[in-house]
């Protein structure tokens, strides 16, 4: 079972009597339904509904642990402190740096429950959607190459900020938070909720994460993907001939239906929506259906 230490991840804790209500009214994740051994993705949005910070969150005793990119941690702490006001909430940076991830499957690709228990970590709900038993645990508990983890998340369409999208540039739907447990439409208001709810109800989310494959090595992150010279999307994480991209799936679907080649730079590519998402490429301007 591979175990990889992600050195560029950082942690902060949220505790106090009002911790749950404070976070529930602020972030995209429904934490009231969070299982005790589960980590879910989430985001703090701008009032315009774009992702300002992204993270994983799980229960930690009577409070919560938030895992985010090291470069985001101080900014996220500052923003949470700004919203705290007089709430009975304690916010603290966690001294332990980095997070370890480990994963494994049985012969049928079904989650190996014993391996999950032995890892003493929390289950990552994003990978669970794809049938992968991956757990997260603060600190260094593995020496596998980070490339192993990157290849796994690329294969299953799991995007991260920085590599796959820029903060303040992507909506939660763009990175599939509406489908992987990171975006709730059933709880009350939170920052940016009105915009993302309108996108959901009107079916206007047309930018989505796709997996990208090529017979040759893909060009670098940020390369434009085109069809007949017109932009379709932008390449994100790359590992050899595999990668991720956020694309306009209506434009990509129309190109595929017409047999128009898709190119990342000058490299021919094939695009696929993550199987676990249930999405399909539309062949018109209509949004994909799940």
UniProtKB/TrEMBL annotation:
Molecular-function annotations in GO: aminomethyltransferase activity
Keyword annotations of the record: Transferase, Transit peptide
Domain CAF17 C-terminal: 206-277
A Pfam family this chain is assigned to: Beta-barrel_CAF17_C
TM helices/strands, residue ranges: none
Origin: domain of life: Bacteria
Alphabetical GO biological process terms: iron-sulfur cluster assembly
Keyword Transferase among record annotations: yes
Gene3D superfamilies xref list: 2.40.30.160, Probable tRNA modification gtpase trme, domain 1
EC number from the UniProt entry: 2.1.2.10
Enzyme class, broadest EC rank: transferase
PANTHER family documented for this protein: TRANSFERASE CAF17, MITOCHONDRIAL-RELATED (PTHR22602)
Protein name: Glycine-cleavage system T protein
């Amino acid at each position: 079972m591979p175990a990889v230490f992600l050195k560029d991840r950082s942690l902060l804790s949220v505790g106090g009597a009002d911790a749950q209500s404070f976070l529930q009214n602020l972030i995209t994740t429904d934490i009231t339904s969070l299982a005790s051994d589960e980590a879910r993705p989430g985001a703090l949005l701008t009032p315009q509904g774009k992702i300002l910070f992204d993270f994983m969150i799980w229960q930690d005793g009577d409070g919560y642990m938030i895992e985010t990119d090291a470069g985001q941690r101080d900014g996220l702490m500052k923003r949470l402190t700004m919203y705290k006001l007089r709430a009975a909430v304690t916010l603290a940076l966690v001294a332990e740096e980095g997070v370890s991830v480990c994963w494994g499957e049985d012969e049928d690709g079904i989650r190996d429950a014993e391996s999950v228990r032995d890892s003493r970590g929390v289950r990552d709900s994003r990978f669970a959607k794809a049938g992968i038993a991956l757990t997260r645990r603060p600190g260094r508990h593995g020496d596998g190459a980070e490339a192993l983890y990157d290849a796994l998340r690329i294969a299953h369409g799991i995007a991260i900020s920085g590599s796959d999208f820029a903060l303040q540039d992507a909506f939660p739907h763009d990175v599939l938070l509406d489908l992987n447990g990171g975006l709730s439409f059933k709880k009350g208001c939170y920052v940016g909720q009105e915009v993302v709810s309108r996108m959901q109800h009107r079916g206007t989310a047309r930018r989505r994460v796709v997996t990208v494959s090529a017979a040759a090595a893909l060009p670098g992150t940020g390369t434009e993907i085109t069809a007949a010279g017109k932009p379709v999307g932008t390449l994100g994480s790359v590992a050899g001939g595999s990668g991720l991209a956020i694309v306009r799936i209506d434009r990509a679907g129309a190109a595929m239906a017409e047999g128009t080649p898709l190119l990342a730079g000058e490299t021919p590519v094939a695009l696929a929506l993550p199987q676990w998402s249930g999405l399909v490429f539309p062949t018109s301007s209509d949004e994909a259906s799940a």
